[in-house]
Design a protein that fits this description.
single chain; 6 helices; Rossmann fold; about 130 residues; transferase; 5 strands; alpha/beta
Length: about 130
């Protein structure tokens, strides 16, 4: 068993500074290292530049939305990237069925407004 100090890294893909900063603070308090992407175009660049353990994906990010971005992650040739847990964050989960999330390759999702206890629980579930 690795020691508790092994830092896990979470990529947060979110264009709202408020949500981004809150999410980052919450996860940093849990000792996660954070990598940020403000749009779908940055997500893949960040994943290729940084070893990441989990992706928190806002569905409504600019350039490439979270669903399309997740599909690109799933098609990526590197298994360290295409196998990553992708947790969708969406303010309009009702617009999508679980079927659509699965089809895009989403591992799990959290509705907005974010419940930070649920956020921490879900991230721990996939990153531990």
């Amino acid at each position: 068993m690795p020691p508790e100090t092994s830092t896990k890294t979470v990529l947060i893909a979110e264009d709202s500074s408020v949500i981004l900063n809150l999410t980052r603070k919450i996860l940093e308090l849990q000792k996660y290292k954070i990598v940020l992407a403000r749009n779908g175009g940055e997500v893949i660049k960040q994943l290729e530049a940084n070893p990441v353990d989990c992706v928190l994906m806002d569905i409504n990010i600019p350039v490439m939305d979270g669903m399309e971005c997740t599909r690109v992650i799933r098609r990526h040739p590197d298994p360290a990237i295409n196998q990553l847990p992708v947790i969708a964050i969406t303010g309009n989960a009702n617009n999508y069925s679980m079927e659509q999330f699965r089809e895009a390759g989403v591992t799990d999702y959290l509705p907005k407004p974010l419940d930070f206890d649920a956020l921490v629980r879900v991230v721990k579930q996939y990153v531990s």
